[in-house]
């Protein structure tokens, strides 16, 4: 027997989904058997008969699916990945500075990341916006199962329809389960922050994995238990595209994690299911189009799509991280007010201040330490929306729903400094400045 066990390093694997895509791409190749793919190691191991199958043919088949055998020395690849990691981390740092210190922070508040309290139409738009990420992450599975279906004589249109129908059913079912769990549990603002930060870290790791292929970085990626994943895909191999779509809904994914946080706070099982359904419907048009275009789009634009997806997920991760940190009272202070409207007036031992609610932002105010504050926020009905309708001040664990008309907020700051506050979702952020000098209070 001339077959030998051979291990190759594979480039282009950026998530656990890719193990299935690589395996599927090699199905039916004579001279290759017992294929084992490891995302964490970045390797492909198989029994290989080089008399039957040339190594270049394996590489060509993988490149059709958006992957490929690593060329050059391991050292050269390691240096390249370190440079990629450096630039990715630098990009994340720049994104965060832009998000917290420039006018871009206002734009990012409108960035379509799944958030609790969003309308169903908005969640559909979120799905549309993140479908590029879905193509980069799941496109290999989509394309490979289309190819397998074609080999079995199944029409491409039917295979892709069943695949996306499976995704839709899986997402909707998961949304219902998560929504029911959220209804049974009382989710505090601290818990919301923890879940949101977890989702943000998930997305940032995923963005780095899209750009780099360092082994230690891949080990930090969350995934299904290896045994469960192997049994799941072993049972779905060669079966209907619908089954593969169902399995796809169980795979770890950054934007999907954020969407599940949204479903968790939906308030009921059916709203959780409906929110996930709307999100998935938004991802279907591009996924379906790519599947119907077969492997041509993925082969030609695999690298640009991956880079664009990395940038998208990086922006979503930074946005989610900033929101999560805001819910625990961390963040960059806003600019102090320079006019009298933002500075409290002390009368009869109480500080009074009046503000107007803006559609997309909260006022920055200045008060004095040690004196009770009565802060009135006037809200016009047409300026209250699903995001700004509840103010949360983490330092005082104070949540204040806003109604049309005057809304009174009472608290007593105990020391000079800055107190961040935010909307209940962590998207709209502002600052309460506390000073000790009475003269400074009056002059700003």
Oligomeric form: single chain
Strand tally is 13
Number of helical segments? 14
Query: What is the strand arrangement across the widest sheet?
Result: 7-13-12-9-10
> DSSP strand (E) fraction?
15-25%
Q: Helices and strands: which structural class?
A: alpha+beta
The N- and C-terminal alpha carbons lie at a distance of 86 Å
Order of helices and strands: EHEEHEHHHHHHHHHHHEEEEEEEEEH
Morphology call: elongated
Largest β sheet strand count, sense and barrel closure: 5 strands, mixed
Count of structural domains:
3
| Helical content class | 40-55%
Question: Mean of residue pLDDT?
Answer: 74
**Unreliable runs:** 107-113, 439-444
Rg, alpha carbons: 26 Å
Layout of secondary structure:
Layout lengths: L3 E8 L5 H9 L6 E7 L4 E6 L6 H10 L3 E2 L4 H28 L2 H6 L10 H32 L4 H29 L4 H23 L3 H4 L7 H11 L4 H8 L5 H11 L4 H24 L2 H33 L17 E3 L2 E7 L8 E4 L4 E7 L10 E4 L4 E4 L3 E7 L5 E7 L5 E7 L2 H6 L1
Parallel strand pairs: 6-8, 7-13
Antiparallel strand pairs: 1-3, 1-4, 2-3, 5-6, 8-11, 9-10, 9-12, 12-13
Q: Could you characterize what this model shows?
A:
With 444 residues, the protein is α+β, with helices and mostly antiparallel strands. The protein folds into three domains: 4-69, Alpha-Beta Plaits (2-Layer Sandwich); 75-327, no CATH class; 340-443, Sandwich (Immunoglobulin-like). It is 53% helix and 16% strand. The chain contains 14 helices and 13 strands. The chain has helices at residues 17-25, 55-64, 74-101, 104-109, 120-151, 156-184, 189-211, 215-218, 226-236, 241-248, 254-264, 269-292, 295-327, 438-443; strands at residues 4-11, 32-38, 43-48, 68-69, 345-347, 350-356, 365-368, 373-379, 390-393, 398-401, 405-411, 417-423, 429-435. The strands form three sheets. It has a five-stranded mixed beta sheet with strand order 7-13-12-9-10. The protein has a four-stranded antiparallel beta sheet with strand order 2-3-1-4. Helix 5 packs across helix 6 (156-184) and helix 6 crosses helix 11. The longest helix has 33 residues, at 295-327. The chain starts with a strand and ends with a helix. The model is unreliable at 107-113 and 439-444 (pLDDT under 50).
């Amino acid at each position: 027997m001339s077959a030998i066990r051979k291990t190759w390093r594979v480039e282009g694997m950026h998530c656990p989904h890719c193990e299935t895509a690589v395996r599927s791409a090699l199905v039916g190749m004579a001279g290759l058997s017992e294929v084992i793919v490891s995302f964490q190691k970045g390797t492909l191991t198989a029994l290989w008969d080089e008399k039957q199958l040339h190594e270049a043919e394996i590489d060509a088949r993988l490149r059709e699916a958006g992957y490929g055998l690593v060329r050059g020395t391991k050292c050269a690849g390691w240096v390249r990945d370190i440079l990629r990691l450096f630039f990715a981390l630098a990009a994340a740092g720049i994104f965060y500075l832009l998000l917290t210190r420039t006018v871009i922070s206002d734009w990012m508040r409108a960035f379509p990341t799944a958030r609790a309290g969003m309308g169903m139409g908005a969640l559909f738009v979120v799905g549309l916006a993140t479908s590029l990420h879905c193509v980069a992450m799941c496109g290999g599975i989509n394309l490979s199962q289309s190819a397998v279906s074609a080999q079995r004589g199944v029409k491409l249109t039917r295979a892709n329809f069943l695949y996306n129908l499976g995704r839709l059913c899986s997402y909707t079912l998961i949304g219902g389960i998560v929504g029911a769990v959220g209804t049974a549990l009382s989710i505090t603002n601290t818990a919301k922050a923890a879940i949101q930060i977890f989702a943000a870290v998930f997305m940032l790791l995923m963005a780095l994995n899209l750009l780099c292929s360092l082994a230690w970085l891949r080990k930090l990626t969350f995934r299904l238990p290896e045994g469960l994943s192997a049994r799941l895909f072993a049972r779905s191999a060669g079966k209907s595209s619908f089954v593969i779509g169902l399995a796809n809904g169980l795979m770890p994914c950054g934007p999907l994690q954020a969407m599940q946080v949204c479903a968790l706070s939906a308030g009921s099982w059916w709203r959780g299911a409906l929110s996930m359904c709307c999100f998935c419907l938004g991802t279907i048009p591009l996924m379906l189009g790519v599947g119907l275009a077969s492997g041509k789009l993925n082969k030609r634009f695999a690298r640009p799509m991956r880079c664009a997806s990395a940038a998208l997920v990086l922006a979503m991760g930074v946005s989610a991280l900033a929101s999560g940190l805001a819910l625990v009272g961390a963040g960059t202070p806003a600019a102090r007010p320079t006019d009298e409207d933002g500075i409290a007036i002390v009368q009869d031992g109480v500080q009074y201040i009046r503000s107007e609610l803006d559609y997309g932002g909260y006022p920055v105010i200045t008060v004095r330490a040690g004196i009770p504050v009565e802060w009135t926020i006037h809200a016009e009905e047409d300026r209250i929306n699903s995001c700004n309708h509840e103010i949360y001040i983490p330092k005082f664990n104070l949540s204040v729903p806003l109604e049309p008309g005057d809304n009174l907020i009472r608290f007593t700051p105990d020391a000079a400094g800055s107190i961040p506050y935010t909307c209940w979702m962590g998207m709209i952020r502002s600052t309460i400045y506390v000073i000790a000098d009475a003269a400074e209070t009056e002059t700003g």
